[in-house]
Amino acid sequence: MITINIIIDYKKRFETKFTAIPYRSGFNKELLRQAFIKQGIEVNYIPFSDINFRNPNLKGQFFLACASEDHSGFYKSYIEDIILGLEQAGANVIPGFLQLKSHHNKLFMEIQRDLLHEESIKKIYSLHFGTIEELVSYKGNISWPVVFKPASGSMSKGVSLAHNMKELKKAVIKVSRSPNIMNELKDKIRLLKYKGYIPESKYRKKYIIQTYIPNLTGDWKILVYGRKYYVLKRKNRENDFRASGGGRLSYERNLPEKILDFAEKIINAFHVPNISLDIAYDGCEFYLLEFQFLYFGTYTIENSEFYFMKREQGWFRVEEKSILEEVYAESITNFIWDNYKKS
After folding, report:
1. Domains of the chain, with CATH numbers?
2. Which of 8, 220, 241, 320 is most buried, with most CB under 10 Å away?
């Protein structure tokens, strides 16, 4: 029997669950354990801090990674160190370090998109910057309007539409400020003392600018757990181009033709067991807006009365409620057997 090490955080929590009791306590760990046992897999829960990198037996072991929503990303940085170390030790980490690095990091997410060979996923183009000075000195072409996005954040927080450089700089100044009073005072002294000295930027929170798709009325949230696809339609906020965080949600049984094919193409390109997709459709083409590989919201699956699967004849709808932990365990099991246990 295969054993999977499920890594839990300092709150003894694994992943996130919309209906978790207590609040924000993640997956029901006993329910998840039983779900894996049904799949023929034993589970070992282990805290990040208990992982011993001098253990020669890490190689080949399976670990399920999780992320964190902690303020300023301090604990997430710790998690990244552990996951990267496990990969260096030869462990099989699901999902891997690159997927974890993309979590709440829209800039690295766009790098992941740009490195794909599947061109249909790359219809949206992004520019990335680490300071406002890099934006001001940028000599390339910018096709206005553009969508401005801070590298971190959810529910469209800080996202805005800029029609020109003046509006874009205003958005950057509002979101990218990285204050350090002592260093700024020292820089003022250095400016007086050293001729030609260039002070540190006061705006060092990274961000991206992205292709704007006009005339959208909303988008589609699609959660993929292995072979099961859960779909939620999101209308834009009133008098706004953003759909995320607006709360105007509906479950649609009739979907735009080929949207599930597009979603399937994305998860295959990234080669992961689970993914959360924000997909836009302008009536002609599909656009991948954003994606997450772990620790994504589970509202879509937990409240859906149905899901979609694919057979040889095409996509069909299954009318049944899903239990998050069971669907997750099934998706991970299938991923392991498809990718690690082939004879």
Report:
1. 2-94 (3.40.50), 126-211 (3.30.1490), 214-325 (3.30.470.20)
2. 220
